[in-house]
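Hi support team,

I submitted a single chain yesterday and got back a structure, but I'm not sure I'm reading the token output correctly. Could someone confirm the output below corresponds to the sequence I sent? I've pasted both exactly as they appear in my results page.

Thanks,
R.
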Amino acid sequence: MAEIEERNQMEPAAPKGAPAGRADNDKVERLGTGNIPKLVREFAIPAIVGMIVNGAYQIIDTIFLGHGAGDLGLSAITVAGPVMMLFLAAAMLFGSGGNALCALRLGEGKHGEAEHILGNTFSLSILVSIIFAILAHIPFFIEPLLTLSSATDTVRPYARTFIQIISLGAVFQVVGFGINNFIRTCGAPNRALGTLIIGAVACTVFNAIFVMGLGWGVAGSAWATVCGQAISCISVIWYFTKTPGVPLRLRKKYFPIVPSLAKDIITLGLASFAVQVGSVVVTVVFNYVLVKYGAMDPIGADGALASIGAVQRIAGFVIMPLVGISVAIQPILGFNYGARLFRRVRTTFAVGEKWAAIMGIAMWVVLMAFAPQIMAIFGVSEELTDFAAFALRVNLITLPVIGCQIVGANYFQATGQPTKSIILSLTRQIIFLLPAMLILPEVLPSIVPFMDGLDACYAAGPFADILACFTTAIFVAIELKKLNARIAKQDAEAAA
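Hi R., thanks for writing in. Yes, this is the structure output for that exact sequence:
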């Protein structure tokens, strides 16, 4: 697919990098003038904490269910994981795509079109959420999905209950998380963080009441998540409708979906969507191999689902801060790329990669040192703790370089190059990881005698990470060469 073309279909373009024509847009304009390390720090800290808080929904569910419902509760949400990822995929499709397009248009000085993008993103999010809620209650759809996710007869009814309750609140997750991205582009990263924190705190409180207090088990955890996401969503909508002096407004006149805008939003969001859908496919296959090889292991199929499910939750959680860095620099990259300030684009990318490397190394040290203690926190039974701790260490051994791959792939989304971003996003999840998950359990035990088929299942992750990082490095090197050429050209024109 070709790169998104610059268009001017709704209003004439302002000068490159100019404010959008309203006095309250100073926070947006500074994306093209402010000190870059300071901007990245200002945006990154709330974004990182925000992604951690967003990931905390699943972590909170896991901790409360591990202690309140035991291994059965952990197995149920492991099986339900693919459906929850689909909801997040929709939020990323419209939220990330719409936000990236909005930042580009603000950089081009097209404020009216930026507000129209916000309105269309809102409408698209509601539409897909309604579809999800309906499908989750149709047996023809949900039962095959549970089978694909390798639900055992014991776990199936609990996983079905969790999915159907969560689907009723899908609109809160898709709208709340998706539109939250726009708050950062409005130059208010701390406000974006606040909307997530209030939801996570509410989720924790409701989990304590429903799961531990009332003993509602899996159903209680699902309702607690819905309540937390609803509160977060309300605070996001409040920002764009009631808060005075915001650069962008959520206006009814922009709710009707414009096909051309919807196409651009979806095109730019496909990379983030592909990552999440890839995670769904990977989770389905992973659950299958866990059940297959877990049945051959003393811990059994349900034990494998419970322990490795907790490992996957932790792995997804520690990735969140690294995603937060890429989310933080997205509006800065998009605005400056749209304004053709390529030197600032290059500097922003370099600072983002530095942050990702430092954070990846710091988290790696903690996980390697305290893996057993971390698994105990999640309520993994004592007989599974050693196995789960070893799995966690192997699965995240490449964490120091994963962040650089994420930032590199998301750079192309932020700068309006969706095809490259999609390719890089798919390399890890689909092209490399899926074959590794199916092949390594068959061949690795013969190469590494102390690992059996079940051990090899979670060794597929670092294998795919190494290949994905190498591929991303090639794309980034080519892109930096182009950026340097553009910078040299601009310098020559300025000197002439």
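A quick pointer for reading it: Residues 159 and 309 are 13 Å apart (CA to CA). Let us know if anything else looks off.

Best,
Support desk
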